[in-house]
Amino acid sequence: MAMKRAGVSAIRALCSSPDLTRGVHSTAGSKKIVGVFYKANEYAELNPNFVGTVERGLGIRDWLESQGHQYVVTDDKEGPDCELEKHLSDLHVLITTPFHPAYVTAERIKKAKNLQLLLTAGIGSDHIDLKAAAEAGLTVAEVTGSNVVSVAEDELMRILILVRNFLPGYHQVINGDWNVAGIAHRAYDLEGKTVGTIGAGRIGRLLLQRLKPFNCNLLYHDRIKIDPELEVQTGAKFEEDLDTMLPKCDIIVLNTPLTEKTRGMLDKERISKLKKGVLIVNNARGALVDTQAVADACTSGHIGGYSGDVWFPQPAPKDHPWRYMPNQAMTPHISGTTIDAQLRYAAGTKDMLDRYFKGEEFPLQNYIVREGVLAPQYR
Q: Which residues are recorded as binding NAD(+) (predicted)?
């Protein structure tokens, strides 16, 4: 069995870890699957394809139960008495999403004695303690590519919103005001601006392609260069040194995974070296930047605008400083959970569950932890 082989290999590689005393589990027999999603509430019935919610549970309940599996869905994931905690002791599979993340800590992994598989319905598995998952012989996988178009389109929208100083104009309209000067003094064209993406993976590459028609100067920093043909197509230039690239940029977009190396990468010192008035878009992860440093720089005007849909933690508390800092265009975590994206990551999750039940391998690009080894982007 694929999952059994993965567990055995992990145990051999990490036999010194105390967590591996749980042993190896077979994929045979009835399984308990727990899914953690956000609630749709009154919006549940407005769209039959609104599947990434508690109410619809990715649309896989009938399929799972017809095969004899137990499927529990909840949005209650925080604190010692939450619904998720009640099921940790006997679940086999946990499905989570980046939009309403269940933080899978080392402590929770130790409690989940039967846990074999952690699935992310979407992209980004940093809400899981990946090192602890690897040491426990677990498999972690996500639906790679399921919402890259959705996020790239959202990033382009946010760039334009910031460049054109759109939100103050919108607020004038709903407040009954009319003050063109109050908007125009900070509104620019995107054409000719230098845009740099930190990370040029699937989302970063799509963004570069979408920015090409705007005649921007495009830069990118990544651990590996993109395909030469795409470089020629987009005109994007590789910057090996991040600190050399950042001061050149009028607009910075974060498209890199959250790891121990990238956590807090845009800190007070780096921000101080950016162009005054720089615009920043972050749909990657909130913890990539120093929360208070961003808020302070927006207040001082050193950052001319900050937009994104990722926070730390999520959901963001009511007193989070980004809610109240000036020149921000923040939203809840929505960019990757469009209806189109939900249908893709629901289908991908079902496919991986089906493979898991049959003991088959997942598509290689979907693995985040496999046989005790982390995917390169998380190392």
A: 202-203, 222, 257-261, 283, 309, 333-336
